Amino acid sequence: MKIQRINEEISLSRSVDSGTEEQRAIVQSIIEDVKTQGDEAVRKYTEAFDGIHLEQFAVSQEEINVAYTQIDTEMIAIIQEARDNIRDYHEHQLKASWMTTNENGTILGQKVTALDSVGLYVPGGTAAYPSSVLMNAVPASVAGVERIVMVSPPDKNGMIPPAVLVAANEAGITEIYKMGGAQAIAALAYGTESVKRVDKIVGPGNIFVALAKREVFGDVAIDMIAGPSEITVLADDSANANEVAADLLSQAEHDERAVSILVTTSESLANAVADEVTRQLELLPRKEIAAQSIATYGAIYIAGSMEQAIEVVNQLAPEHLEIMTANPFDLLGKIKHAGAIFLGRFSAEPVGDYFAGTNHVLPTNGTARFSSPLSVEDFQKKSSVIFYSQQAFEKNAKKIAAFARLEGLEAHARAIEERGANK
Amino acid sequence: MKIQRINEEISLSRSVDSGTEEQRAIVQSIIEDVKTQGDEAVRKYTEAFDGIHLEQFAVSQEEINVAYTQIDTEMIAIIQEARDNIRDYHEHQLKASWMTTNENGTILGQKVTALDSVGLYVPGGTAAYPSSVLMNAVPASVAGVERIVMVSPPDKNGMIPPAVLVAANEAGITEIYKMGGAQAIAALAYGTESVKRVDKIVGPGNIFVALAKREVFGDVAIDMIAGPSEITVLADDSANANEVAADLLSQAEHDERAVSILVTTSESLANAVADEVTRQLELLPRKEIAAQSIATYGAIYIAGSMEQAIEVVNQLAPEHLEIMTANPFDLLGKIKHAGAIFLGRFSAEPVGDYFAGTNHVLPTNGTARFSSPLSVEDFQKKSSVIFYSQQAFEKNAKKIAAFARLEGLEAHARAIEERGANK
């Protein structure tokens, strides 16, 4: 792993994959087909891309029952406990409607409402990610969304992995469809005979899914389009090199484009971590992926002081930040930009990925400068509420009309003057 | 104005103007030029589009002082009172960081931080909109954003309208630059010699500004891209036709594509409003615009019952909803989708546009189904905070490792097993 002293501005930003012209054209024509031909088009693309002909897209209760028999009872209990932790944490994010009142009769407020319906995309392929199902569905459920729909591409036998079905059922998802790719996004956005349209689409996917989400954005809401995952570890000489190395590698195994960075004030830790990464890497089943990620994007930065180290962290605005210093809480107030902050050596990133209750859908690629973890708020929206009594109105009518005229909007001024004692 | 009974699903959705290929190409090349040539490129485009050569883009304190002499003292006081009302309302939206603690030592929380910097685009042209400056800048200031930058195209004399400068100064904006169009958006997104880059860009603009915001989205955050404005009035036979008509026209004068709709249970009101619209329209200075909007998008729907009327309102999900019924608060709980809800005859839309304190930047084109008014939250972001004590860790380590292995992520499991008593 490269070790370097800090001597210039450091940024995480990698170019975002915005697809080729050809990919965009494919996605546009799939969406158009689903819009005009509905299920028939979804069926055609499912046959072409997933290699299976499906008459029925909906997953049956029977299939869910079978899934439960295929997962260890102990594992089901762990999924349930994780779900409960996620629910507990996210319940703190619930916002109430509120209002203010004034003696002159003015009432102003904000009415909070859940979205009516949400669609959750769950990728298929070799790895099944039940944790991702929980992280997306539980906040929607806590927000009060009545209709939570999941779509996921079927395998060649027309099946969805049992762990994903169990997680979906435990998260309170009531509609599950076997469809994937751009055709599934189009079905969620515009509806087909089988699937009623939804108001928002969330969840990760490959480049075709990402492009389709961009394409339907505006007609429905979408969540952020996530980039490859990152971790930054901020450590002093109290940190354990084995643990730091293991954490860096846990990020690197995700993806060749994942980023693992150590920022430390300790040269000896820097050297020890570099050695440990090399040693542990050899023992990993996904070592090709992890090695590629570490070689391309891995870095160890030695800072001259903790202040400089923190400055680097804020420049990076990492998705995951682990603070492994003697007194990690001392530094919390200084961290301005990070998706999730893990404090101390027992708060390893997988604690938050799976179990603690915080959300693992986090802003990547430096966007923690302006974005937040997925939360209950992403599934609620607000309406402003305005009530003026006659008294409040008459006190302010002239001022409001004057402001409208300052902007040249005469009909606005007249709408005021049509009313009340001024009339 | 067309009067019709409701007999099918009604939707506000109009196609969103996503620009021509040519417009997109122009915007891309302007952005590229500003990225590579900085101020020089901005200077070139300012000369080409705004007809003025500027050596210096920054507005000086002297120019602001002069602006104050050009605006009526009474008008300045109205702007200040509106700003105070907006600040009071938005202070209720401020979120605090929070945490939960558990006896086993677990601490989970959410750290709320303001964005470092925000850029506000203010359109030029004939109409100056100081209210829009307040509505965008005050929430950013309440959120705690340290650097609020405004850009606005100069007129042929290199000036920005005095009312806009006064509003900017009153809202606490400290940096103002004379630049507009795609070149200003690029300068905010990537920085030039004169302008340091910002983290988020907000504010309305023409199609070039909207396309430029879409283009830089991802590198910086942007607010929603607003469509033409809409009003829906929900009224029973207690409503006053003159007032309803005046309110519909106040929307229609904005834009030929503005939408003004009355939904009512009263046939006599429907007829009276149609007549009043015709009468009042003739008296408006912007009657060409308003007449065009009413002819194309105006509609009066007669509902068979208040329940049906409310259903229509929720289908429309209007930007502005006025409830002009005998007991408007009776209906508030039934409204699911609206940007802002104005209750009763003294809560005319201009009350909220200018003065009451709620935000006038609202979701348009049916997006109130999933979007919210501009708020303090748009200028803050959150970081998850996770602390596990050794006790909490050891209690859960095996479960976390098992979950990671269920997903095939061995390095995640090992990061857990590197630690604690399991080691």
TrEMBL record, chains A, B:
Protein keywords: Amino-acid biosynthesis, Histidine biosynthesis, Metal-binding, NAD, Oxidoreductase, Zinc
Positions contributing to Zn(2+) binding: 251, 254, 353, 412
Gene Ontology biological process terms from the UniProt entry: L-histidine biosynthetic process
Enzyme Commission number(s) of this protein: 1.1.1.23
Record carries keyword Amino-acid biosynthesis: yes
Pfam families xrefs: Histidinol_dh
Positions that bind NAD(+): 121, 183, 206
Binding site for substrate: 229, 251, 254, 320, 353, 407, 412
Metabolic or biological pathway: Amino-acid biosynthesis; L-histidine biosynthesis; L-histidine from 5-phospho-alpha-D-ribose 1-diphosphate: step 9/9
Cofactor binding note: Binds 1 zinc ion per subunit.
Cellular component terms (Gene Ontology): cytosol
Any one Gene Ontology molecular-function term assigned to this protein's record: zinc ion binding
Listed InterPro entries: Ald_DH/histidinol_DH, Histidinol_DH_CS, Histidinol_DH_monofunct, Hstdl_DH
Catalytic function, reaction form: L-histidinol + 2 NAD(+) + H2O = L-histidine + 2 NADH + 3 H(+)
Cofactor names: Zn(2+)
Active-site residues, Swiss-Prot/TrEMBL: 319 (proton acceptor), 320 (proton acceptor)
Protein family per UniProt: Belongs to the histidinol dehydrogenase family.
Biological function: Catalyzes the sequential NAD-dependent oxidations of L-histidinol to L-histidinaldehyde and then to L-histidine.
Classification via NCBIfam families: hisD
HAMAP family per the UniProt record, alphabetical: HisD (MF_01024)
Protein name as catalogued: Histidinol dehydrogenase
Native source species: Paenisporosarcina cavernae
